[in-house]
Specification:
Blueprint lengths: L9 E5 L8 E4 L12 E3 L5 E2 L8 E4 L5 E6 L7 E7 L21 E7 L7 E7 L10
Parallel strand pairs: 1-7
Antiparallel strand pairs: 2-5, 3-4, 3-6, 6-7, 8-9
């Protein structure tokens, strides 16, 4: 049995202007010419890409901030997330849980942190070049 999964489990991007594709969702299954079903619902971009063949790209504009949960209606274990944000300052953790956001100007900012299955964290930080340690309770 082949394992079916999304190549990227989390994609964070800046919400883009209408008409500007921000992400291409592409079918990658290799078991014959099986169509790729992808759907998203709830609080982010709502979409249903229907069934399409391997290799076909489906450009999707994520034009409003929000979390889109991307699912496959054939493989229930497949899930991925697209988080569209309204700021140029964002990051995704590496395997150690660390991240860097370059070129943040000095000042006071509100931060938001999210993870699948966890509660959202919100706090305030003073950007002065010092590292910030964010931990979930």
């Amino acid at each position: 049995m082949r394992v079916s999964l999304f190549v990227i489990g989390l994609l964070v991007l800046r919400a883009s202007a209408a008409g500007t594709p921000a992400a291409d969702l592409r079918g990658t299954a290799r078991a014959g010419d099986r169509p790729q079903p992808n759907a998203s619902f709830r609080d982010g971009k709502k979409l249903d890409l229907g069934l399409y063949p391997v290799g076909v790209q489906k450009p999707v504009v994520f034009d409003k901030p929000g979390l889109s949960r991307i699912f496959c209606n054939i493989h229930p274990n497949m899930a991925a997330y697209v988080l569209a944000v309204d700021s140029p300052y964002f990051g995704v953790t590496d395997d150690r849980g660390a991240f860097a956001i370059p070129l943040v100007p000095s000042g006071r900012f509100t931060f938001h942190a999210w993870r699948p299955g966890g509660t959202n964290l919100t706090g305030t930080l003073i950007a002065d070049g010092s590292p910030l340690d964010v931990r979930w309770p």
